[in-house]
Amino acid sequence: MGSNSFLQAKQVLSFYGLPVTREILIEQRDEVGKAAQQIGYPLVIKGCSFEIAHKTEKGLIHTDIRNEVEALDAFDKISKQLEGYNSGILLQEMVEGRRELVMGLMRDDQFGPCVMFGLGGIFTEVLKDITFRKVPFDESDALEMMRELKGNKIIDAFRGMEAIDIKTLARMLIGIGRIGQEFECVREIDLNPVIICRGKPIVVDALMILG
Q1: 82-85 — which CB contacts under 8 Å span 24+ positions?
Q2: Angle at 188 (CA atoms; ends 190, 143), nearest 5 degrees
């Protein structure tokens, strides 16, 4: 899949009722100002290329961009890093939150499409606190999934943070399952992180693998 494939993934997710970040993919420097105004500051600016895996390490992600001068500077630096790659540059609304979750889909040879839910961000690989459900399932199954996590207290009001909107979380998990059911070509979906901003979950990064 090309550099804009995760944008298409976001469009599919949005159609199925998942809240996603506002973002615009650009290629030219003179598009920066207009795109930034459409989204609104603060921004995250990312270099997008399916040929590059670890974007943070390569200096392809600039966060907390507050004005056009900073946006153009980030565009120039990222463009330099992307020379020689099939790529684009993404301007994305900046979503802030101290809690991150992960959601996704995998297609098991025996069970068919299964939805995954767990603690996200940098802790995904360390804690491996995730749970799975075979598709189809309903809201009560989705709520049950949330309680199966060892770290399920993160969903409730926690250290001065409000409880997460579990109805929206459940709707998101069911939506992922529906995509898996309705599109056999979707082999895998990886949404990490899903950031919790003022109690509301929003998909920041999305990967959809077709096969």
Answers
A1: 82/47, 82/49, 85/49, 85/51, 85/52
A2: 60
pLDDT digits (tens, 9 = 90+) for 12-34: 999 999 999 999 999 999 999 99
Query: What percent of the chain stands above pLDDT 70?
Result: 94
What percentage of residues in the chain have a pLDDT greater than 90?
Answer: 81
User: pTM score, two decimals?
Assistant: 0.89
For tokens 């998942």, the residue is 18
Q: What is the rounded (10 degree) CA torsion for 118, 121, 124, 127?
A: -90
Joined tokens for residue 38: 């459409």
As beta bridge partners, residue 62 has: 45
Whether residue 124 contacts residue 101, with contact meaning beta carbons closer than 8 Å, is answered with: no
Rounded CA-CA distance 36/39 in Å is 5
Alpha-carbon distance of 169 to 128, in angstroms, equals 19
SS3 annotation, 80-107:
HHHCCCCCEEEEEECCCCCEEEEEEEEE
Tabulate helix, strand, coil % of the chain (nearest 5): 35, 30, 30
* Domains of the chain, CATH where assigned: 22-93 (3.30.1490.20), 99-210 (3.30.470.20)
- Please, which residues have CB within 8 angstroms of residue 147's CB and are 6 or more apart in sequence? none
Residue type, 133: R
Band the pLDDT of 126: cuts 50, 70, 90: confident
